[in-house]
Amino acid sequence: MQTYPSAVEVNIALVRKSLDAINRGDLATLATTVTPDFVRTDLAQAFVTGGPGAGGLSDFIGLIRAAVPDFKMTIVNIFATDDQAAAQIRLTGTHEGEVLGIPGNGGKLDVNGVSLYRFRDGLISGNNQLLDLAGLLRQLQAPALPPAEGTQVVLYGPPADLCVTA
Question: How many domains does the chain divide into?
Answer without folding.
Answer: 1
